């Protein structure tokens, strides 16, 4: 869209004019005394104290409630590789969600580089200003290395939301769908369509949450991932070693034959005939946005529970159910990292919000449900203490 096609009267553009964020002071500046306390000379005493004991930054700066939302604009949802500047409205929106749902102050940082080394070096350099790093919309497979390296080198939580936020909410939804259908997670045969950032994380999270990896089959654009494949990246090769115990080969239709669950995180269309090959009364999560891999109405012909990533259908699998509470809990516990136990705890908390009122059209809470973030935060903080990564 060119500047000449922007309609100032369009409510979308009216809302975004001037951006969606501003900086607000938390202290008064109405007198000379206020100024001397907030800035010079008073601030020097706080600086000296932190220089002597860096841990005091948690108490005397904003890092206890501040997160950097970092992207290179290479994989923006529904838009692809649009670059740093064009990604900024999305990162601003992410920051708004952090503040609204969990009172976390988030700063959008769009990096004008897609080089892994440069991204890692830049984030490492700015990390002292924040209590956590939320990586966003960085394309696979680079996102795996960026997160791994930063997680190893930084003493604060690093969380790639496109991977782990999606995975947490999928696990929560699958827990409740299985409960509704009187099934056990360990008995479900699961097909994951998509082996990018979300697909890999979803597979890992489901296994951490109780799904039998031998009963999981993952597909990428070339078909079923298994030990027969010689064209796999390191990440996909690990999937081949740990899933698909039956040694299935072929396309997604073969992967879905007799499956109880389809989780679509690929963006590619899945034929109705392939869905028809699933076991009856199953579960379909078609999460590509804006166009699900399977039309929800088609999926409902074969599945007992259907979810999408869209807000205009029931059971929206939305990352906003996870990331605000995850970071709020991690910050409250002053966690040094986010563990699998913390992610599973987050999924359990999301599922628990609606466990007493489950129906086929309500297996997860609404993204606007005010109970979600506090429940997730409390569960994540407790799990951080249990896992030994909490400093508070």
TrEMBL record:
<feature type="domain" description="Malic enzyme NAD-binding">
    <location>
        <begin position="163"/>
        <end position="385"/>
    </location>
</feature>
<dbReference type="Pfam" id="PF00390">
    <property type="entry name" value="malic"/>
</dbReference>
<dbReference type="InterPro" id="IPR001891">
    <property type="entry name" value="Malic_OxRdtase"/>
</dbReference>
<dbReference type="InterPro" id="IPR012301">
    <property type="entry name" value="Malic_N_dom"/>
</dbReference>
<feature type="domain" description="Malic enzyme N-terminal">
    <location>
        <begin position="18"/>
        <end position="151"/>
    </location>
</feature>
<dbReference type="InterPro" id="IPR046346">
    <property type="entry name" value="Aminoacid_DH-like_N_sf"/>
</dbReference>
<protein>
    <submittedName>
        <fullName>Malate dehydrogenase (Oxaloacetate-decarboxylating)</fullName>
    </submittedName>
</protein>
<feature type="binding site">
    <location>
        <position position="137"/>
    </location>
    <ligand>
        <name>a divalent metal cation</name>
    </ligand>
</feature>
<dbReference type="Pfam" id="PF03949">
    <property type="entry name" value="Malic_M"/>
</dbReference>
<feature type="binding site">
    <location>
        <position position="289"/>
    </location>
    <ligand>
        <name>(S)-malate</name>
    </ligand>
</feature>
<dbReference type="InterPro" id="IPR037062">
    <property type="entry name" value="Malic_N_dom_sf"/>
</dbReference>
<feature type="active site" description="Proton acceptor">
    <location>
        <position position="94"/>
    </location>
</feature>
<dbReference type="InterPro" id="IPR051674">
    <property type="entry name" value="Malate_Decarboxylase"/>
</dbReference>
<feature type="binding site">
    <location>
        <position position="136"/>
    </location>
    <ligand>
        <name>a divalent metal cation</name>
    </ligand>
</feature>
<dbReference type="GO" id="GO:0004470">
    <property type="term" value="F:malic enzyme activity"/>
</dbReference>
<dbReference type="GO" id="GO:0046872">
    <property type="term" value="F:metal ion binding"/>
</dbReference>
<dbReference type="GO" id="GO:0051287">
    <property type="term" value="F:NAD binding"/>
</dbReference>
<dbReference type="InterPro" id="IPR036291">
    <property type="entry name" value="NAD(P)-bd_dom_sf"/>
</dbReference>
<keyword id="KW-0479">Metal-binding</keyword>
<comment type="similarity">
    <text>Belongs to the malic enzymes family.</text>
</comment>
<dbReference type="GO" id="GO:0016616">
    <property type="term" value="F:oxidoreductase activity, acting on the CH-OH group of donors, NAD or NADP as acceptor"/>
</dbReference>
<feature type="binding site">
    <location>
        <position position="318"/>
    </location>
    <ligand>
        <name>(S)-malate</name>
    </ligand>
</feature>
<dbReference type="InterPro" id="IPR045213">
    <property type="entry name" value="Malic_NAD-bd_bact_type"/>
</dbReference>
<feature type="binding site">
    <location>
        <position position="162"/>
    </location>
    <ligand>
        <name>a divalent metal cation</name>
    </ligand>
</feature>
<dbReference type="InterPro" id="IPR012302">
    <property type="entry name" value="Malic_NAD-bd"/>
</dbReference>
<keyword id="KW-0560">Oxidoreductase</keyword>
<feature type="active site" description="Proton donor">
    <location>
        <position position="39"/>
    </location>
</feature>
